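#structure-requests
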Amino acid sequence: MKIYQLNLKCLKLEEMKEFYTNQLEMPLVSESGEYFAVMAGATKLVFEKDASQPFYHLCLPSGLPFFEYMYEKMSYLQLLLEDEEGHYSMFWQGKQAYFTDPDGNILELLERQYSWSDIEHVKGWYYVGEVGMPVKNIAQFKQELDSFQLTKYKSESDSFSFFGDTNGVFVLVKERRPWYPTDREATIHPIKVIISGDKAGHFKHSDLPYEITIRQEWNGSMPAVQVRVARPTKHIDKLLEFYHDGLGLKKIGEFRGHEGYDGLMLGLPDNSCHLEFTQTETEEPADLPAPTKENLLVFYLPDIFERD
C-alpha cells in the first residue's frame, strides 16, 4: 500500500510551511493562502489551514545517511522526543527517532531500505510510510477497510493495529490512546489519503472524518496511476466554458503565468484521467497545428437519455 498523497489540517500555516520546506527540506510544489503542498519523497503532503489545533502522527522513512543528518538537525533544534528511559535514539528493525513540528504533530524518523521498487541509493526522504488513524473501534474499522483494501497484518489488540504492508500502513489506535513516545492522547482529525491498491475505489467513513481513494497501478515496469492528455490552444477561456460549464467536467486545477503559460486541467471524469489545455502569449495562432477530422475526443455515455 503506497501512500501517494496525504491531506492534513494545520493551524500554523506559515510556520508549518517554513518548517517543512526549510528544516525538513521538502520541495514546495504549490501553495495559496489556504494550503501548501510539499513532496515528502514520493508522497505529496498537503497541509490545509484550519481554525482548530490538529494532532497527527506520521512516519518518514529514509536511508541511514539522511536519517543521521536529520537526527542531528532535529537535535540541534531541540525537537527530539525522549522515550520513557530518556533515550532520543531508538531501534526497531533500524534506527528511529521522534520529533515534533510547529503544530505539535509527532513525526517519526525511521531508517529503512527503499521498498516501493528495486531502485537503489534513493537520497533524502522516501515517502510517508505511516499515517496514524485514531478510531473508536479498531475491529469494526478494519472490517470496513477489508471490504476494499488488503492488509498483511493481523489485529494486534483492541487498542493498536497496523493496516497495510511494508510499503505503507495506517496505524490504527483507539481514540485517547497515547502516541508513543509521549503521553499525549490520540485525537481524531480530518485525513484524506490517496493510496495504491489491487483495484480502484473510494472510501469515505460515515462517522469519522477519513476519506481514502485507492488507485490501481498498471502492471509491469510502469506503475502509472494517472493519465493526462494535453493540447495547446488560443481559446482557453472558451474551452473552460465548453467543457466545464457545458459538458460538466470537473475543473481539477489551473495555473496562470507559469513560465509564460496558462493551464487548465479537467477531470475525465475524475482525477485519475485529465484533459489539459495550455496557452501562451508567445505563440501566434498560425503556430498551432489545427486538429484534423481524425483527432477525436470520445465520451462513452451508457445512458442514451443522458447522452441526448
